[in-house]
Write a structure and sequence with these properties.
This protein is α/β, with parallel strands linked by helices. It is built from seven helices and 21 strands. β10 and β11 form a beta hairpin. The chain starts with a strand and ends in a 5-residue tail after the last strand. Bound molecules: FE2/S2 (inorganic) cluster (FES). The site of FE2/S2 (inorganic) cluster has 13 residues, from loops.
């Protein structure tokens, strides 16, 4: 059994199979709709059901409440069609050749860049390439159907190796493997690229780019791509972290700032240790952004980080005048 999904105010339509999420069906049809976590927790995929009915096989997901559900809102990463649908979403793009694939990759190199962060570089088989947009992520496919998501930190023009920044989580299934057992040459399997956190090039507004912890990795990809393509828009990069060692590639954004007059860089520590001898900004990174830019109405904002950071920033930035459609974010829950 399948149903048809039409996207209101566009010419796009696609079929969704019984039990398939609307987002998965759209991807299968070569369309990119907004999504990030695909787990019902971030809210990125929320849109409207204009006509038709949907159901959630596991009950209402965490990122939608009863009132929103009643009002016809839906999380399309979890929603299953139970009739033909007309839906409205914030943005729809033709994916072109940016289609998720399942690929093997070998660990080419591992670099320790903080006590609990490693840069892992992966090499694809010789006859394979991954078409992706900087800022997107991949899912490692683990035994038992489990997945672990990591953003790509490199760019398509520098794709001989795929670069990921992996933080060690206490008791972490995959990160424990990466830090304790994984050797260079290890074979991994992943699906990607995924997500719609990437640079929109149809704007000339100044940008604010925020990374929280290892959320710096997609920001790195986006900025390197912007520099490569000669983007001249002002970019104010923020990196929010707990203490100084967590700014594990701090020299890189400092170098961008020194070499490019359109780039500013502000690291912000929420809990610097005495030995950090930190004289820079402190507190929550989104609060520093609003202190520096009390009127956000003229900006595009890109941010990647854990849900508490993203949720706090969404509220603060809306209050500072940022229109909802100029906020692009990747909200990642670190899975153990
Ligand atoms: Fe659907 Fe996160 S809630 S993508």
């Amino acid at each position: 059994m399948s149903y048809q999904v039409r996207i209101a105010e566009t010419d796009h339509a696609f079929d969704v199979d019984d039990g398939e999420s609307v987002i998965d069906a759209a991807m299968r049809a070569g369309l990119m709709l907004p999504y990030s976590c695909r787990g019902g927790t971030c809210g990125t995929c929320m849109g409207d059901v204009v006509e038709g009915r949907i159901a959630y096989p596991d009950g209402l997901p965490p990122a939608i409440d009863g009132d929103q559900d009643e009002a016809g809102k839906a999380l399309f990463c979890q929603a299953r069609a139970t009739s033909d649908l007309v839906i409205r979403v914030g943005e729809v793009r033709d994916a072109g050749d940016i289609r998720p694939q399942r690929l093997p990759a070998r660990v080419e190199r591992v670099e320790d860049c903080a006590p609990d962060v490693r840069r892992v570089f992966l090499k694809l088989p010789r006859d394979k390439r991954l078409a992706f947009l900087p800022g997107q992520y991949i899912d490692f496919l683990l035994r038992g159907g489990q997945r672990r998501s990591f953003s790509l930190a490199n760019t398509p023009h520098d794709d001989e190796l795929l670069e990921l920044h992996i933080r060690h989580l206490p008791g972490g299934l995959f990160s424990g493997y990466v830090f304790n057992d994984m050797k260079e040459g290890a074979l991994l399997r992943f699906e990607g690229p995924l997500g719609n956190f990437f640079l929109r090039d149809d704007s000339d507004r100044p940008m604010i780019l925020i990374g929280g912890g290892t959320g710096f990795s997609p920001v790195k990809g986006i900025v390197e791509q912007a520099l490569h393509t000669g983007v001249k828009r002002p970019m104010h990069i923020y990196w929010g972290a707990r203490a100084r060692p967590d700014l594990y590639l701090d020299a890189l954004p400092r170098e961008w700032e020194a070499q490019h007059s359109n780039i500013a860089y502000t690291p912000v520590l929420s809990d610097p240790a005495a030995e950090d001898e930190w004289s820079g900004s402190t507190g929550f990174v989104h609060e520093q952004v609003v202190r520096d830019h009390p009127d956000l109405s003229g900006f595009d904002v890109y941010m990647s980080g854990p849900p508490p950071m993203i949720n706090a920033a969404k509220t603060a930035f809306a209050e500072a005048g940022l229109p909802a459609d100029r906020l692009f974010y990747d909200s990642f829950e670190a899975a153990p």
